[in-house]
């Protein structure tokens, strides 16, 4: 009987010692130690036990809304998402031309088939309010380079289309018969437009600085490269009615723009672009620039 009591006492003591040791260690699950600490986002970490008690390294599996992450370092919460995709952004502005042509050059004299006293920049005067620039960005994506409570730095790119419309006040016409040229037409146009459509890719560096609670100053710079997949003129007159002429004429297929933006996030944002490449392959030197409002920007 004494031996039985002694055996039971030994078992009780052993159980107590085991329980005490167990409370000092996290419970195990198939060789993994369970970390039940949840910080911010829901996550459960399992640390693999190692045979060497002096080693603190182990494998961690983080399970949360972002998926399963395996790491050799413990994380209190899942890593912040750095990559984002945005759908539909729109620019609406006006165009103008920086005309740097030497109208006394042989190329300009040959290209402009108009009277000599009209071979100057005034020949391309425009109705600025009707010279519209529209940019449509169906998909944009950004990558967070830096983020703090008061500052964000993003790099973003995407794909889109840029449309340039130039409304001329003079009755000029672009022709591409035996050779490209500009003539002064014999009819009066109620609408005389030159238009471009580009498939474009932007690469922008975007900054966001906290000005106050809920107010972020947004500003950025970058470049936009494009390929002109269509160029055309549209003219309306009483004599000829509505006419469209799709042709490359004498224009470059590729363009490169410098671009900038500034505004208050979720309130208003302005953009501007300047085309550093010449519109023309030769003869004239004209660089379009635009300014307008950006809707739904990054």
Task: Name the features.
elongated; 2 helices; mainly beta; about 300 residues; five-stranded antiparallel β-sheet; Porin; eight-stranded antiparallel β-barrel; about 10% helix; single chain
Question: Helix and strand layout, with pairings?
Answer:
Layout: H1 2-23, E1 28-29, E2 32-35, E3 43-48, E4 60-64, E5 67-71, E6 83-99, H2 106-111, E7 112-113, E8 132-147, E9 151-167, E10 172-176, E11 180-184, E12 189-212, E13 215-237, E14 241-246, E15 254-264, E16 268-275, E17 286-295
Parallel strand pairs: 7-11
Antiparallel strand pairs: 1-2, 2-3, 3-4, 4-5, 6-8, 6-17, 8-9, 9-12, 10-11, 12-13, 13-14, 13-15, 15-16, 16-17
Tell me the β content.
over 45%
The CATH C-level class name of the largest domain? Mainly Beta
Mean pLDDT: 83
Q: From the alpha carbons, calculate the radius of gyration and give it in angstroms.
A: 34 Å
As for the CATH topology of the largest domain, it is Porin
**What are the low-pLDDT stretches, counting only 5+ consecutive residues below 50?**
15-20, 22-56
State the separation between the terminal residues, measured CA to CA.
82 Å
The strand count comes to 17
* Spatial strand arrangement across the major sheet: 6-8-9-12-13-15-16-17
Overall number of structural domains: 2
Q: Which of globular, elongated, flat, extended, rod-shaped describes the shape? A: elongated
Instruction: Give me the number of helical elements.
Output: 2
User: Assembly type of the shown chains?
Assistant: single chain
